[in-house]
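Final report, closing paragraph on structural work. Over the funding period we assembled a curated collection of sequence-structure pairs, and we close with a single example.
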Amino acid sequence: MERPSTRVLVVDDEPQFRSLITELLIDKGFEAHAASNARAALDLAGDRSFGVAVLDLVMPDMGGIELAEKIKQVSPDTQVLILTGQGDMGSAIDGLRHGVFDYLQKGELDIPRLARSVTEAGERSRLTRENRELLTRLQESNRLLKALHDVAAGIAGEPHLDRVLERLLSAAKILCHASAGRVLLFRRTHSDDLVIQTGVGIGAEAIRGARLHADEGIAALVAATNEALVVPDARAHPRYSNRCDDLPASRPGLVSAPLRHGDVFGAVSVAGPEDGEFGGEDRDLLAILARQAAVGIDNALNHERSLNFFTHTSDILVSFLERMDIFYPGHSRAVAALADMVTRRIGMSDEERGHVHFAALLHDIGKLMVDPAVLKAEKITEEGRRAMQEHPAFGVQILKSISLWEDLLPLIHAHHERWDGKGYPRGLGGEAIPLGARVIAIADAFDAMTRATPHGAHRTPEQGLAELEAFSGSQFDPTVVRLFVAEYRERGDQLPPE
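Its predicted structure, as stored:
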């Protein structure tokens, strides 16, 4: 591809000489424009399109050296040649010090030398501009890479699948300057067809569960080949699918990148470039983002599997417990709901709140190893009381073989410890008791006090709260009691029924 001719600005206050130089340069293939004074020259140079400026050294309104400096300020890539009728070596040195490319004598002007000097100056201008543009692109790339890193870090730390997909879609549209987008996760069938398992973005909800043939869909192709694509016109692509790839946008163009990691199999697609068209850089950026996001999606899926395991297994265990602990139906779920209420007020992270929730749900699971006769007795003997005090340790014994529950064990083990150190089974006190266990202890006591059983006086909720306050600082953590009481009075009527 032939390069465009160098644009040259000729500035001289002598009309005849100015015209002569301009015409000579035009004859040599340059695009030359003339200016008679500094103001006109600066107006022309302001658009930064001139590669070279040929300036007279001495002019009435502004000298060539000063004008060269001002041109450089408005157009940094422009290279300056100084023409002078004086053989002043000091002026030449001064000019070179101010970034002047060359210094030519008017009286001894050699046309080939002028043309060669303008050519070389134009080449330097081009290289300077290209280097600056490259630096700008590198800086922009670094900015985008940092943004990618920040987004990827946020996605990797997000345990909820729907939030991961939403963050991915938002980042993809921002990075590619796209107006529309969609993330789809697929599941392969035995016949090699694909089922759209889940997704976010335009129309994703409507196509969830749809079955795609093996050769249907650009997004499915991208997922299968593990290669990102730029498609100028999605509807013209042979794999286009109305269900899979229809992303309405005001401008044509689609970029799609694969989501592949572990069990993750899908694609993120964006459409409708906000200006211009999608290119290789958009494809590469989206591919990088998708590779990072696939790891986060896999983590979130594993978290959901763990949560499902926790939920279903806990329900089974609690159901067994309630068949044995006949005087406390619904107690485990009520304690979990009360614990959820106060952990929200404390401001625990989602992960910490999850641990407390499941530990509260399973806090009494050790009773499965207690003699059923003790659980069903309306009056508990001293021997039965001692047997019951074994249930925190029994709970740990039952659950310890399941590694996914290892973070729950300290909370279950310590839920009958007291703030003053007089609890069981280890006699821990104060902040040596895990915070989650302190929360469960209060929720456990409150629910036990406010339900009708043969094992103690039945109290109203207000009486139960008063009892907690009475034992704040001795049996219970005073800070957690204060938060529990405040939260219950504000939200107690919103708790789920047993």
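DSSP finds 19 helices and eleven strands in the chain. The two ends are 78 Å apart (CA to CA). We thank the funder for supporting this effort.
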